[in-house]
Amino acid sequence: MIHFQVLIKSLDDIWILSDSINFTKVHFFSSFYFGPSKSVIELVPYSLKHHSFQHWIGHPGLKLYGIRALSASSEMMILRMFKDQLFETPLVYSLFDPSIETVKKSTGLIAEGKYQDFTKLVQDSIIEFKMNPYQSKVIENFCASLNGSQYPITLVHGVFGSGKSYLVTVLIIILYRAFTSDYMLETTRIVLSSMTNVAVDRILLNLLELDFTDFVRVGSIRKIAKPILPFTCQFKSETHDLKELNEMHGAENLSVQDRLDIQKAIKKFQESDNRNLIVESFVIGITCLATNFDVLDGLINKLSKSNGLKMNAATVDSFQGSEKQIIILSTVRTRSSEFLEDPRRINVALTRGKCHLILLVSDSMYPRSNLWKGIMMRCSQPQVKPGVIDTTQLFEMLQD
Fold first, then answer.
1. d(Cα 317, Cα 339) in Å, to the nearest integer?
2. What's the pTM?
3. Which tens digit of pLDDT belongs to each residue from 268-278?
4. How crowded is residue 87: how many other Cβ atoms within 10 Å of its Cβ?
C-alpha cells in the first residue's frame, strides 16, 4: 500500500508510478481508500506483476513520481462484479485466454443438420443488404461461431459512421430469420446492450426502418427515443408509467410524429399490451449502468416528501468521507463474495452512521464468512439492541 499526496483524487483512478522523472520504467497502480487526510490517497498495485515495486518504496533517498492517467471507476466496478461470476459465465475462458488450444468452445446454437441451410441464408442476406467486404467478413466469422467450431467472441471496431450499427442490425435480422426457419435452437434470444441509450436506440430504430418489431426496450421512459416507446416494457406501476407518458405528451416542443409515438405507447400501456414483452420478444434492448438506484428513486422521493426526511442511496465506495445520522446497509447477497470479504471496504460501510446502523444480511451468507460471522456475533451481544432479528420480528416492530 502506498500513501500518495495529491490535489485531485477519486476512487479507482489509474496511476502511473516511477522512480525516474523520465518514467523509463513504469508501474501501474489504482487508487483505493482515502488516507488519513484529504490530501492523501492510498494506491494499490494494479496487478500482481507490480507488487514488487512496493518493496522499493521508503528506501532512503528514493524519489517517487506519479501521473494520474484516467478514471476507471465504471470499468473497475464491472470487473469486480464480473470476477464474482468468473466460473459461472460461459465465455469467461475465451475472454481471458483466446488461444486456440485453451479456448472453451460454445455448444453451438444451430440445430442439428441445419448448418448448410443457415450458411445459405447468411450469404443471401449479405447480398440483400449490400454488405461491403469488411462487413461480410464479420458476419461470416460471427455466424461460423454459432456452430461451436470458431472463437465465440467477435470484436468489431471502426470510426464513427463506418456502418457498425447497421452491421449489428443486419446480424439481428439474419438470426431472427434463422430462428423462425427452425435453423436455431428454440431457446435462442438476443440481448442488445450498450453503455448509452442512444447506441441501443440507434440499432432498434434501424430495425424499425426494416419493418422488424419483435423487440422490447427496457429502461427509463424519458430517456428512450420516441419511436421506440410503443415497444417499451412496463416494469413499474401502470400509474407511474402512464403519468410519465402523459407528461411527455403534454410537452409543447414535440413534433407531430413524436406525439403520435407517445400516443401509441399510452394506448398500449392503458391496455397492458406490453406487460409480457420481456418474455415474448426475440430481442431485448437495454443499457448497462444507466443508473445504480433507479428502482429506489421513486420510493425514496415518496418517503422524503411524506416524512420531511432527507434520504439518498449510494454505494459504499461513493460514501467514503461521508456520514449520516442513520445508515441502512444492504449486503444484497445470499452468498459470500470478494466484495463482502474486504475488511477495509466493510470498515467504511459500518462506520458511516452517526447514531444508528441497520444491517440487512442473508442468514445463508454470513455463517460461511469469518468476517461477517464476527460482525453478527458482535450484533448479538446483550448491549446491542435490538440485536439480530429476523424479517418477521422486523415487520412486527414496524407495525408497533
1. 11
2. 0.59
3. 988 888 888 88
4. 7
